[in-house]
Amino acid sequence: MKKIAAFLLTSILAVVLTACGGSGNSSKDNDMKKIEKEGTITVGTEGTYRPFTFHDSKTNKLTGFDIDVVKEVAKRLDLKVKFEETQWDSMFAGLNSSRFDVVANQVGINKDREKKYDLSVPYSKSTAVIVTAKDNDSIKSAKDLKGVKVAQSLTSNYGKIAKEAGADIQSVDGLSQSLTLIKQGRTDATVNDKLAVLDYMKQTNDDKVKIAAELNKETSSSAFAFRKNSGIKAAFDKELKAMKKDGTLKQISEKWFGQDVSE
């Protein structure tokens, strides 16, 4: 009797383990399969980070470089796009909790993010710059940030650069707030994306701030971010590579920047 009971117990455990193993293997593509079935992909973005993701002043519609790229990818995947707007420092929490399927917000590629998330192939490249008040001549390189007040989004690549330079970090929601604090004299500088800063200056003609230094060694590539093993990365990578090959990514780049920023 004991032998029969042991045999039955072993058999049950084998079935359970097989089922679990099968579930683990198939779960990798569950997110993408669910998205394809529902026909909609949910995208997390700021909506306040011009020219990548922002609202048009005339139509109030969400637009920008990242918005155009992710819409084109979704179009090629035959998916509708639903955008969920949130502050940068809440972006990955929203991804983790499945509030959205992908982050489209100039996510810089770094080792920490690669460990935690699936990142697509890069779709843009840029450099970091230091922005100060126009009359501030004391900051000319990253080493000059040590001990000074620098406004940054805490979880951004640029915040990491400022922190590593020894800056006194003042937490903000994004670039716009950083520049406001600089002009008010409440902070001394901010480190941010060169393309975003140049676009801001072009659009506003703001002569109260300036690019004090360009950190050429801090070239960064941006990607879309997904939860690990969601199956979405492979689909996005395929379309992004095709967009680069057929010139679509270049066309979107030139629309927003006058040059190809995907290289």
TrEMBL record:
GO terms for cellular component: cell envelope; membrane. It is found in: Cell envelope. Residues 40-260 form the Solute-binding protein family 3/N-terminal domain. The keyword Signal applies. Transmembrane segments: none annotated. Residues 40-259 form the Ionotropic glutamate receptor C-terminal domain. GO terms for molecular function: ligand-gated monoatomic ion channel activity. The keyword Repeat does not apply. InterPro entries: Iontro_rcpt_C, SBP_3_CS, Solute-binding_3/MltF_N. SMART domains: PBPb (SM00062), PBPe (SM00079). Residues 1-21 form the signal peptide. Keywords: Signal. This is L-cystine-binding protein TcyA. PROSITE patterns: PROKAR_LIPOPROTEIN, SBP_BACTERIAL_3.
